Amino acid sequence: MEIEEDVEEEPLNAYDITKPKDIFKKFNEKWTNKVLNEQKWKIQKRMLEEFIKETEFPKLENSGHQHVIRMVKRLLKNSNINIQACGLLILKGLAKGLRQDFG
């Protein structure tokens, strides 16, 4: 008579098996200044959407993201709701990709 033990296996998580991607080399402080100084909101939104797309990678390298946080703080004060929404999506992507390193 064999006794089967119920052992729950955790499903594989993309975060755990993926090597981190360093997006902050491309999107550095110079880039954030360029975004913030852009006068046309549609161009600014396109630039932010490019960054948001990069934050969708499962695991991000924690190579210094404070300049992005400072940018998002300013974006959330923007009068354009589209720009504010981009700021929130950036925070979401960073929190998901950096996990414990986000803070």
- Mass-distribution shape: elongated
Ends: how far apart?
53 Å
Question: What is the string of SSEs from the N terminus onward?
Answer: HHHHH
Number of strands: 0
Tally of domains:
1
Contiguous runs where pLDDT drops below 50 for at least 5 residues: none
* Helical coverage, percent range: 55-70%
- Give the strand content: under 5%
Q: Which structural class matches the secondary elements?
A: mainly alpha
- The value of Rg in angstroms is 18 Å
Average pLDDT value?
92
Characterize the main sheet: none
- Helix count equals 5
What does this protein look like?
The chain is mainly alpha-helical and 103 residues long. The protein has one domain. It contains five helices and no strands. The chain has helices at residues 14-17, 29-37, 41-55, 66-76, 81-98. Helix 2 runs parallel beside helix 4 (66-76), helix 3 (41-55) runs parallel beside helix 5 (81-98) and helix 4 (66-76) packs antiparallel against helix 5 (81-98). The longest helix is centred in the last third of the chain and has 18 residues, at 81-98. It is elongated and about 70 Å long. The N and C termini lie far apart (53 Å). The mean pLDDT is 92.
